[in-house]
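Holo prediction. Input below; ligand is iron/sulfur cluster.
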Amino acid sequence: MNKQISTYTMWSTFLHCERRAYWRYIREMVPVRLDDALTFGSLIHECLASWYKDGSSESVLALIDDNYTERHYDATARKHWHYARAMMLAYMNRYVLDNWGVVAIEHEFDQPLKNPATGWGSHTFRLCGKIDLAVMVNDRAYVVEHKTAATIDAAYIEGLNLSLQADIYSNVAGDSPVGVIYNLLKKPAIRQFEANQRRKEPETDEAFQARLAEKLSEPDAFQRFTFLYDMNDRRRLQAELWELTNRWRRCTRSGMWLQDRQACFRFNKPCSYFKLCSSRDSEDVLNEFYEHKAAHSELTQEDTPHATT
Ligand code: SF4
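Structure of the complex:
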């Protein structure tokens, strides 16, 4: 029997709201309009992969230019082009002398999901994913996870420590101790000045890039946090994942995927399925605002994650 793929994203979605997991992984529906923050983050991931692959800043900048060809007439594309360009230039400048020994880039893994009581693999699920970067630093193995965020505050950093993602990614190292490094890139919050009553000319691209570069030279624009994992952490993770597989099977059997109404505005914005849930699952809303996209498309070529809009 073919075992189903499960990923960190799937389990995290399920933990946050069963109903959200149902829409994404059972019905395989996504909003027609992609979230700008997600698409921007995906582009930055691709830029970082390119940078760690060949160390060419020209390739990185060309990638950004190619992704935002409409920047000459589209204000949203221009804004994101500015941010991506300034962020990557500042990042490459700050970390040009990184002591990371790159082992693998965008490494995909596919592992059995084991019952902690028996050691046997699940008949239903396997555990898959893609690691942004694997590096060696001072003879210790690390998994690096890139994150782009508008705000990096104490709560955000505390949250990383308890992240299921880091737990799962640390698991790929087998029995060896491993560290997980969160490589955080803060998206600048400044805007390009437009012409108005007090300002005759709009700010030029060069002037805005210079202002962004100054902002991104601040220490907190890029931060790295490291967490270490050992066998105790792995055993705890196995038990947690096993319990999640049991809950998932219960939902599948009963067809009941409960709505967690506390999660609808979790990131200070509506969940991407809010339109659907608040319409009581209207077929009209489903057909108009959502489209089919295979589950786990981030692991396949099907994903086209960084469209501009
Ligand atoms: S809108 Fe709320 S209830 Fe519906 S899927 Fe999203 S988080 Fe769950």
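Residues 231-254 form the longest helix (24 residues). That is the main takeaway for now.
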